[in-house]
Specification:
Shape: flat
Number of strands: 0
Structural class: mainly alpha
Number of helices: 14
Strand content: under 5%
Distance between the termini: 62 Å
Oligomer: single chain
Length: about 300
Amino acid sequence: MPNSTTTATSAAQPRSAASRAQSAKLRTAVKHIALLLLGWLMIYPLIWLFLSSFKTNADLFGTLSLWPSQFVWDSYVKGWAGTGQYSYTTFFYNTFVLVIPTVVLTVLSSVLVAYGFARFKFPLRNLLFVLMISTLMLPHTVIIIPRYLIFRNLGWLDSYLPFIVPAAFGCFPFFIFMLVQFFRGLPKELDESAVMDGCNPPTILFRILLPLCMPAMISASIFQFIWTWNDFFNPLIFINSVKKFPISLALRMTIDSTGGTIEWNQIMAMAVLAILPPVLVFFFSQKYFVEGIATTGIKG
């Protein structure tokens, strides 16, 4: 005859396993609900912005409903036409002319500087690297006046040169530091093998190391693209002519130039179009972006 204590223990074990499984399911459900709520909070402003571009002013300021009570279908057409002599075709074109050279030159110059710091020994290398890193600590507002005076003396105001030329000379220490870490993660045996095969430093950089650093370069490109695209302060300081305004200034000008009632749905519509390029760039390259942030560039 089985002991009563043993029987009770055997019966308790299945109940304990079932209880643990139920607890795991409950924790999973709670996690999913929390993630859904967090995702909804993050995407809600974008949904609100998009639906607001179809609302009337009365809907925007008179109700908390997300869905428009009366759709306005021409807000994108009227918003694109602008309020003055320049449409958003001009402003988008200006933004691409400003952003693309800045991004390309930033990545190229950062790669060259990072390669030098990571692979070569020269006098005062450590001191120069520390000085370069220390510039990360400088607030942007501290150097805006010296930059303005320098560019004014060079005659570069009201042009895109204050953005493009510094990008060509490695003036973004954050990207240099990031790429230095990637170069340092690559084994130096690659360089030594290439030297034995007769390669010089430029060949080693462009044919061997850069393909391995592609995720880091794409990450730097995404960062610089989004930061420059969304930049409002620097264009406000250095660009004066309306015909050279990027989108960030154009949106502000649209608000200012409507003397009477502001058609907020048109501004919302242009804001939706303004955020599309950075969002598309991020989503189409997020695989490389995550890889560039999470790895050291070493394959296999």
